[in-house]
Amino acid sequence: MTIYQKKVCLLGDFAVGKTSLIRRFVERRFDDSYLTTVGVAVSRKQITYPDSSLNLLIWDLAGGRDHRQTGYLTGVSGSLIVCDLTRRVTLASYREYTEQLYTINPKAQVVLLANKSDLIDNRSITDEELKTIAGELKAPWLLTSAKNGDDVDRAFILLADMLMGDAG
């Protein structure tokens, strides 16, 4: 069996749910308390395929478009770029994070996530807006909820499958 290892990162503004998405995927848990990520935290998760496996090294980068984080993007194969469905301002960041990532690795795979889909009454970004920006960035998108787990596994598996397409 062939074992691949890929570095992926989650990018997005402060408090969009990057750490919560990782915790849900890797540890199968959710915590309501908010702790700001300082610098970077790295988690690992193995995904098994019929003839191979993929070790994802998941980098949780501090929120914000701090250009000092570009060093953390070195060697990144793919990214989940996250916005918060309840904060319209976070949608515009998709472009900036994608451009920043492509500057470091033009061949990186990207999946756009619109997190906090469980907060239906507070939603301020429409599916149509997400579809439009995803089309412009030529990236798939998903609605996720770290709180209840909706499409969190699907998001990471989609990125992994895209990376394995590159590996194969």
Please give the number of β-strands.
6
Order of strands, main sheet, comes to: 2-3-1-4-5-6
| CATH class annotation | Alpha Beta
Pattern of helices and strands: EHEEEHEHEH
Q: Strand fraction band?
A: 25-35%
Task: Determine the mean pLDDT.
Answer: 91
- Tally of contiguous helical segments: 4
What's the N-to-C terminus distance? 13 Å
Spans of at least 5 consecutive residues whose pLDDT stays below 50 are none
Give a quick set of tags describing it.
168 residues, alpha/beta, Rossmann fold, six-stranded mixed sheet, 4 helices, 6 strands, 29% helix, 30% strand, globular
Explain what the structure shows.
By secondary structure, this protein is α/β, with parallel strands linked by helices. It has a single domain (2-167), classed as Rossmann fold, CATH 3.40.50.300. It has four helices and six strands; from the N terminus they run E-H-E-E-E-H-E-H-E-H. The protein has a six-stranded mixed sheet, with helices on both faces. It is globular and about 45 Å long.
Summarize the structure.
With 168 residues, the protein is an alpha/beta fold. Strand 2 (40-48) and strand 3 form a beta hairpin.
Secondary-structure map:
Blueprint lengths: L1 E11 L5 H10 L12 E9 L3 E10 L14 E9 L8 H12 L4 E7 L11 H11 L3 E4 L7 H16 L1
Parallel strand pairs: 1-3, 1-4, 4-5, 5-6
Antiparallel strand pairs: 2-3
